[in-house]
Specification:
With 527 residues, the chain is an all-alpha fold. It has a domain of 200 residues. Helices cover 68% and strands 3% of the residues. The chain is built from 22 helices and three strands. It has a three-stranded antiparallel β-sheet. β1 and β2 form a beta hairpin. α5 runs parallel beside α11. It is globular and about 65 Å long.
């Protein structure tokens, strides 16, 4: 069954070919079909993950270090599920917007091959277990994301897209230099083999630092976030939703994998504190900048900078902590829940803002006047997204921030709690500012009435907003997926420490002793 892993990448790649060569009028229908197919492929991985442990699939049947393997575990599955559950409603929104008369929807037919290409790249990144393969899929993600960002053709989008491209290339270049140094030192790029061979040295430290800098740029972590707000704010609504909800998470996922896995022996508390401080600055600065914006999409884009900052506060809480420490499980839960909650909430927010812009013709904050009577479903979607971003119960954002506060106090690093509360109050400021205008009982003149918008656009935004709240009720299942993460991620130990002291070692994901002769090519499953 392990060969099912490759379907999550092959399905959207096939969608690229089909949607690229079909006539423009049929691309949306084909894109939706392949979106469902990709979601089904991800769903088929559920039994593999539920069985526990890690599952590998050897591409071409070649064993590392010559071959490349795909790797599936609980953490990777969570990111795959997030991409699928966010990607499908966004695709439905884009298809409906594309059919609006007079091109009011603003979604180009080229959206579909580019979106399928980006989806394949993200799925490939979550499953890749080889540093160079990770570089390749990162380039796929970066190029597809930039192409989507400039798809509208507006001058502001072109300028922002060029800045995005330069930042993406700088991040990729730093990452590639680090990969080259690792290969020159250890003659392998497989993450498991690297974890077994890596040693502390100046070359290794420089290589790891270059990789971290590359991911720092791609994650838009303060102060290297300069490219994100204009790129996300100037893109079409479905593109903005994809970029903010999904694309920026890929860099954090990879950093988390390497930080807690193959290169865990290279991490230091000083580096973790530095990244945590940058994350705290991002949380406060991004939320403050969002509060100052008059245009709603710029507000949402700056909000992404702030919400990404919460993720990096997790690192000093899980670094250099003793095994079985009481705060490790809450810290891991906080980080993963922040990824999920922000993914659903930010996609819902951008799609609802897209509905408002289509209805009113612009995205200025004053366009929200009495919006609750004009577009109640989209307004409700925005409110649900805002509730999760603030961290109010019972949303997924509440679980994330509550667990982060719990971990901060339990670890003795109480100062992170002050940053979390401060940034959450700023978030509440810009969310409630918009809602106050939306609920203002001012009469609406006939000339100001909202233009008709297809209901499916509102439904897509509302579905994602409900998702941001609903995951707050399913903490047990989500934490259970962390419990079956691989041995190279602390999640196994953190959520439920093994009773056997001779269990997992510090080596990242050590495979079982291979049989002699080697297993036949194709696939291998490791319980």
């Amino acid at each position: 069954m392990a060969n099912l892993i490759s379907l999550t990448v092959l399905a959207p790649l096939l969608g690229v070919l089909v949607t690229l060569f079909l006539p423009a009028r049929h691309r949306a229908a084909a894109g939706i079909i392949f979106s469902f197919a990709t979601c089904a492929a991800v769903g088929l991985l559920g039994p593999l993950v539920a069985g526990g442990g890690s599952t590998y699939h050897l591409l071409g049947g070649w064993e590392p270090p010559l071959g490349i393997r795909l790797h599936l575990d609980g953490l990777a599955f969570l990111f795959l599920i997030l991409t699928a559950l966010v990607g499908l409603p966004v695709g439905l929104y884009a298809a409906a917007a594309q059919k609006m008369p007079d091109g009011k929807g603003g979604t180009s037919p080229l959206f579909w091959p580019l979106w399928m290409f980006l989806w394949a790249g993200m799925n490939g990144l979550y499953l890749s277990h080889d540093l160079f393969n990770l570089y390749v899929v990162m380039e796929i993600i970066g190029l597809a994301a930039v192409a989507l960002a400039i798809l509208s053709g507006r001058p502001a989008a072109m300028v922002a897209g060029l800045r995005y491209l330069l930042a993406a290339l700088a991040g990729s270049g730093a990452f590639l230099f680090g990969v080259a140094l690792f290969y020159g030192s250890y003659a392998t790029l497989d993450l498991t083999l690297l974890g077994e061979r890596v040693e502390t040295s100046h070359t290794t430290a420089v290589a790891f630092a270059l990789i971290l800098v590359g991911l720092w740029i791609k994650a838009a972590l303060f102060p290297l976030h300069f490219w994100l707000p204009p790129a996300h704010a100037s893109a079409d609504p479905p593109v903005s939703a994809i970029l903010s909800a999904l694309v920026v998470k890929t860099a954090f996922y990879l950093m988390l994998r390497l930080w807690t896995g193959s290169f865990a022996s290279l991490t230091t508390m000083s580096a973790a504190l530095a990244l945590g401080i940058l994350g705290g600055c991002a949380a406060v600065w991004g939320s403050y900048q969002a509060l100052r914006q008059e245009h709603l999409k710029k507000m949402a884009a700056h909000s992404t900078v702030g919400q990404i900052g919460f993720l990096f506060i997790m690192l000093p809480l899980i670094t250099a902590a003793p095994a079985g420490a009481a705060w490790l499980a809450p810290a891991w839960t906080a980080g993963v829940y922040q990824v999920l909650a922000h993914g659903f909430a930010k996609a819902a927010m951008f799609l609802s803002l897209g509905v408002f812009a289509l209805a009113t013709g612009h995205d200025r904050r004053d366009s929200m006047l009495n919006m609750v009577s004009r577009l109640p479903m989209a307004t409700f979607a925005f409110a649900l997204a805002g509730i999760s971003l603030i961290g109010l119960p019972p949303s997924g954002g509440f679980v994330a921030k509550w667990m982060l506060l719990k971990a901060a106090f339990a670890s003795g690093q109480w100062w992170w709690a002050l940053i979390v509360v401060w940034a959450s109050f700023l978030t509440a400021g810009y969310v409630f500012m918009v809602l106050r205008i939306a609920f203002a009982p001012a009469p609406v003149e006939p000339s100001e009435a909202a233009r008709p918008v297809p209901k499916i656009l509102e439904v897509a935004a509302l579905a994602l907003g409900i998702g941001a709240i609903a995951i707050g009720f399913r903490a047990e299942e989500i934490v259970g997926l962390l419990d079956i993460a691989p041995a190279n991620a602390p999640a196994i130990e953190l959520v439920e420490p093994p009773s056997d002291p001779s269990g997992p070692t510090d080596l990242p994901n050590p495979p079982d002793d291979p049989p002699d002769p080697p297993s036949p090519p194709g696939e291998r499953s490791q319980p």
